[in-house]
Amino acid sequence: TQVTDATPIKTLPDAQTVTEVQHYTDRLFRFRVTRPASLRFRSGEFVMIGLMGDPDPKTGKQKPLLRAYSIASPSWDEELEFYSIKVQDGPLTSKLQHIKPGDQLILRPKPVGTLVHDALLPGKRLWFFATGTGIAPFASLIRDPQTYSDYDQVILTHTCRDVAELTYGRELVESLKSDEMLGELLEGGQDKLVYYPTTTRERSPKMGRITTRLEDGTVFRDLGIDGITPGTDRAMVCGSMGLNTDLKRILEGFGLREGANSEPAEYVVEKAFVG
Ligand code: A2P
């Protein structure tokens, strides 16, 4: 018998279909794709995604152009979400920024990463420190019920150049309050999830780099917290090299030690990849 199948033939290796695209600024966008049925991941992990590159001028052969992207959606979501920078001359993002629903992209279904609950020892308060697109893994983690069952309080800090670049995170945090499952977890207790946005190049209620505000104690005064201590506080950091280096120094200064999947401790760091 002849098989007639209405689904489009997947021409790319590990192809997934784009379901939604939303542009925030000329530098930032978010997109959702279908999720491979077999893909299991831990909130905070990343996968390699990409597109076929241009044909080689000599051989005519095309090779996949792949980059590491944190999965921004929670593990219970039936689709996968990603949050990306657009770099006009970036090998991948110059093309990726033009994707539309129905297009296909390549997704290698091998999630890995250190921004996972397993890499931290139990604690009371969990800090997520992000700059720019470094918020992506935390977009997954703040939608994971385990985050709220493991900790009394979760603080998400996000530093961006201007107010428009905060939109993705702000809208996400706002949407959680009315979420059927997470809304309940966020109620009770005061401020279970605290959102602390700062900008560095445009006026906003909280100006300056998060690193500066930690070092001069502004963050703690704003939040009514004594400080960060290894007995109660855990942290995950995701941003530029500069942010990661500076925050490592600051957190170690507070007595926190860097953890890993194989040896959990008090904080973990990962570079925000595409940029
Ligand atoms: P700044 O404007 O002072 O450079 P980008 O969009 O370039 O990735 O930067 C995202 C945000 O991260 C910007 O607000 C930027 O501030 C901030 N940033 C850059 N380097 C550091 C660092 N070493 N520590 C803290 N924040 C940083």
From TrEMBL:
Its EC number is 1.18.1.2. Its cofactor is FAD. Pfam families: NAD_binding_1 (PF00175). PANTHER family: FLAVODOXIN_FERREDOXIN--NADP REDUCTASE, OXIDOREDUCTASE FAD/NAD(P)-BINDING DOMAIN PROTEIN. GO terms for biological process: cellular response to oxidative stress; heme catabolic process. This is ferredoxin--NADP(+) reductase. It comes from the Bacteria. The keyword Isomerase does not apply. SUPFAM superfamilies: Ferredoxin reductase-like, C-terminal NADP-linked domain, Riboflavin synthase domain-like. One of its GO terms (molecular function) is ferredoxin-NADP+ reductase activity. Belongs to the ferredoxin--NADP reductase type 1 family. Keywords: FAD, Flavoprotein, NADP, Nucleotide-binding, Oxidoreductase. InterPro entries: FAD-bd_FR_type, FNR_bac, FNR_nucleotide-bd, FNR_type-1, OxRdtase_FAD/NAD-bd, Riboflavin_synthase-like_b-brl. Residues 11-118 form the FAD-binding FR-type domain. It catalyses: 2 reduced [2Fe-2S]-[ferredoxin] + NADP(+) + H(+) = 2 oxidized [2Fe-2S]-[ferredoxin] + NADPH.
